[in-house]
């Protein structure tokens, strides 16, 4: 702002005139240099550019997959129970032991037999009752549980152990009622074990009941091919194809951004080497880390920001990473 001095005689007020001239010099020296400010703004703009990497849309063969959770199960199992009151006689099976159809698994001795030692009397051929009661397995399988030890006193009807029929091993799958149209008997599926192994399976029959609390219907799944020994109630992932394989345009998952509610999606497309703009997209299913882009249709020359796009505004200044 210019300062106007009143006419002052130099001979009458030399000191006052010197002070005013000094103030003008200080004001002139304190004004910022316009050229320096512009250079600083330009450097700040360069520092504000986001380093990004770019890629292009590609065409893949994808399938819309339904991911559900299943459990291992042994639907055919037999509970072996005591048929009388008495004592368990050695040997007693151990968990994991295989038994055959009709094989004696447990042997009971009645109280009277133990008191009279009838099992040791062999001289009288008319005495055919030894007091030993044999409990066989109705089918071949493996001992899943053994609840009693040799010498234990058991009551009539008390559970002694459980035999699982491994030939009837399978999986149970709880399907939400909203997804029932995608599951049908005879449909092929993929079963992923917790250690990453993948087994082939086939949807069997549905069970005629639904869970009231969570509204799901249970299906049984039979494995196809060789199955490793697995315990019951092991959680697995079951994948079923909702649609047939189809050709679609895809982008890496990192290229697609979304809002907090996961209802709006967009990507950042380069206008030139230093500017990226926000483009809303309609997404489809995701497979192997790539997301199907239903619309819009990008051209092969369009460059999409793959990394460094998080938090960018529309028409953002970017810098390509080499």
Question: What's a concise summary of this model?
Answer:
By secondary structure, the chain is mostly beta strands. It contains three helices and 23 strands. The protein is elongated and about 135 Å long.
Tell me the span between the first and last alpha carbons.
Answer: 50 Å
Strand count: 23
Q: What CATH architecture of the largest domain would you give?
A: Beta Barrel
Please name the CATH topology of the largest domain: conserved putative lor/sdh protein from methanococcus maripaludis s2 fold
**Which percent band covers the strand fraction?**
35-45%
How many domains make up the 3D coordinates? 3
H/E element string?
A: HHEEEEEEEHEEEEEEEEEEEEEEEE
Helix-strand category: mainly beta
Main beta sheet: 9 strands, mixed
GO molecular function: efflux transmembrane transporter activity
GO cellular component, one term: efflux pump complex
Protein name: HlyD family efflux transporter periplasmic adaptor subunit
Write up what this structure looks like.
The chain is mainly β and 322 residues long. It has 3 domains: 50-63 and 245-320, conserved putative lor/sdh protein from methanococcus maripaludis s2 fold (Beta Barrel); 66-74 and 168-241, Elongation Factor Tu (Ef-tu), domain 3 (Beta Barrel), CATH 2.40.30; 79-163, OB fold (Dihydrolipoamide Acetyltransferase, E2P) (Beta Barrel). It is 11% helix and 45% strand. The chain has 3 helices and 23 strands. It has helices at 14-30, 34-47, 111-116; strands spanning 50-55, 58-62, 65-73, 77-81, 86-89, 98-99, 104-110, 132-136, 141-146, 153-154, 159-164, 170-176, 188-192, 198-211, 216-224, 235-241, 246-252, 257-258, 265-272, 275-287, 290-295, 304-307, 316-320. Strands 1, 2, 17, 18, 19, 20, 21, 22 and 23 form a 9-stranded mixed beta sheet that branches. The longest helix has 17 residues, at 14-30. The radius of gyration is 41 Å and the shape is elongated. The relative contact order is 0.19.
